[in-house]
Design brief:
239 residues; alpha/beta
Length: 239
Amino acid sequence: MTDASASGNPPRKVLVVDDDPHIRQLLAFAFTKAGIATVEASDGEDALACLARDPADLVVLDINMPRMDGLEVCRRLRASHSAVPILFLSSRDEEIDRVLGIELGADDYVVKPFSPREVVARAGAILRRTAGQSATPPADLARGRLRLDTAGWQAFWNHQEVILTVSEFSLLMALATSPSRVQSREMLINRLHGPGFAVTDRTIDSHIRNLRRKFAEHGAYDVIETRAGIGYRLGACTG
């Protein structure tokens, strides 16, 4: 990962939230080495206050913290319609915790103990998507009543904006760019994270459920079609 300041652009900024000062220091050093600026918070309440004062490009958020845990921070951010990307840190290697985090609106997760290099790599993948550094489709994608503003990272149904996380938008964009193609979970994981990332099929399923729920709130019930045993493709997007 290159230092953004070297190209004349300000570095991306990550808020690292963990009650363990050693972990915060370790991650801050790793991010700084990768050319990414960091801000630190020791608990959930401090994290929300930091974001209110000075928004970040990404939040690295520990789940188990005193006063307010990471899941509650995620709930409050998504309830306020904040689409800031969230990367969870979890000391509990239980799939239910990871899936719950994704269903609440997180973009990715890393299980403790972790390698700082892995955290930076996963964070970098998310930041590259938001920066549009990967291959980009046309600036405006329209499929039936669905419209994606790929430059502004906004999704619209029937002219009403549907607030999505970075991963949800990226997943929907992957389907919309090849609307007739059925894409397996592995294909979608590679589109979102690149090959080699340890992401379970259930993570993709959770993102799909989130997308369907959000669009259903706007009266859209056919955005994503499931092909049993194969994967997903874009639906008719007619209503």
